[in-house]
Amino acid sequence: LDFIKNPTSFMMTEDHSFNETHDDSIVAASKGSGAVVDKELMAMLKSLRKTNAKKLGVPPFVIFQDPSLEDMALKYPITTAELSNVHGVGEGKAKKYGKDFVALIARYVEDNDIVRPDDLVVKSTGTNSGLKLYIIQNVDRKLPLTDISSAKGMEMPAFIKEMEAIVFSGTKLNIDYWIDDILDEDQQEELHDYFMESETDKIDVAIDEFDGEYDDEELRLYRIKFMSEVAN
Question: What's the pTM value of the predicted model, to 2 decimals?
Answer without folding.
Answer: 0.73
